[in-house]
Amino acid sequence: MFWRFVYNVFAIPLMFIAYHIMGCWNRKIREGIVGRRGVFSKLKKQLGTSRNLDKTVWFHFTSVGEFEQSKPLIEVLYTDTRIVLTYFSPSVAPNVESYTYVDAAAYLPFDTRRNAVRLANLIKPNCLVFSRYDIWPNLVWQVSKAEIPIVVIAGTIHAESRRLGAIGRSFFKSIHQHISLICAISEADAVRFQKLSRVPSQVVVTGDTRYEQVHRRAMSVETDHVFFPGQATLRRPILIAGSTYAEDEKIVLDAFQILREDESGILLKLILVPHEPTPERIRDITADLKRRDISYVCYSGLKSDANLEHTDVVIIDTIGMLAKLYRLADIAFVGGSFHGSVHNVMEPAAMAKPVIFGPTIQNAYEANLLLEKGAARLVNTSQEMVRVITEWLYCDEERETAGMNGRQMIEDNLGAVDRTLTYLRKYV
């Protein structure tokens, strides 16, 4: 009761005020605020016209990565189960809106006690599923009060998480004691979750459901698939820098410029895929390329007769292409790792591409696995990136072995969907 009082009386008002103040400067936060307007009427309307089935499973996830972890489970359950999705980040909204296997979807409203009760009464789920770690206190407390089972899938908690500190552990224990089951991605994560759980049996190891998702997608892309006009004229070797932020792009473009001006003869081509290709971001990127005297073209500006032989950089200024686009790469760089947390390193690995990322990988257990398998390299500077790219491009066997090691790591970790479903069906 103590932590519920602290959370609702102090934390919630402060978070509400901070969120709206930050929204004055942050476009993404503003989108979230606008997207949450009328969320209950939107859900009510969707549920009113949805399939009339006996069972309803409510999945909540924060963003794109956690949605990907949910997808394989959703698509199996969808046949005889009504699927309701809620999400936190605006970045996932377009993906959810175009998704086939869903009956109703909306932003998760602000985590007040009243909103949590309204949601539970409106959705009436047989089970609430959190993907990975986006667990909201009032939602857990109120849903569990209604005796609705709560399951966490693909659960992960890194060793340095504040949740494991003295204060954090006390607070999160008050939440986790109401969770029916946590499906962790690894033994190490399971041990950490057990420190927050009511009983050890509340936590099981099932693996990461994203392995199936990225493996299935990789297998669906033909080797000679054409992604954009002029692709055949884009000479190799090709570096794809995916899901990048400005901090990542500085390191990548510094390295690219060094290689471009080197007399070693490496004529590297770069396909740059920003994490959020907004007009503002594209303007910043193209301005930087102009300052560096690097030739470029945007995907949206390509014509059917495009010739990219003498173009240095192709900027992908749309969303939804990256996971399959890695098929073109000789080497892949995964962004986020110089910004805050690395993004999906599984996607290029599933395509048997050697992977480079920056230093911030605590959020990604699979990034450490790739390092252990020799399928990836961690770099801290543009000079280190130059060295890695040069080594891999001058030794085809080493580069190809790294890529194959990555694909083998993906294949070795398949099966999480079936293991998770075995437990989840008990609650559905």
Describe the structure.
By secondary structure, the chain is α/β, with parallel strands linked by helices. Helices cover 46% and strands 15% of the residues. It has 18 helices and 14 strands. It has helices spanning 2-22, 27-35, 39-48, 64-77, 93-97, 113-123, 137-145, 166-176, 187-194, 210-220, 246-261, 279-291, 322-325, 346-350, 365-372, 382-394, 396-412, 416-427, and strands spanning 56-61, 82-87, 104-107, 127-131, 150-155, 181-184, 203-205, 238-244, 269-274, 296-298, 313-315, 331-334, 355-357, 376-378. The strands form 2 sheets. The chain has a 7-stranded parallel β-sheet with strand order 3-2-1-4-5-6-7, with helices on both faces. Helix 14 links the parallel strand 12 and strand 13. The model has no long low-confidence stretch (mean pLDDT 95).
Mean pLDDT: 95
| Shape, per Cα inertia axes | globular
Radius of gyration: 23 Å
Distance linking N and C termini: 29 Å
Strand % is 5-15%
Number of helices: 18
Physical arrangement of strands within the biggest beta sheet: 3-2-1-4-5-6-7
Largest sheet: 7 strands, parallel
Helix content: 40-55%
Low-confidence stretches: none
Q: What structural class results from the helix and strand content?
A: alpha/beta
Strand count: 14
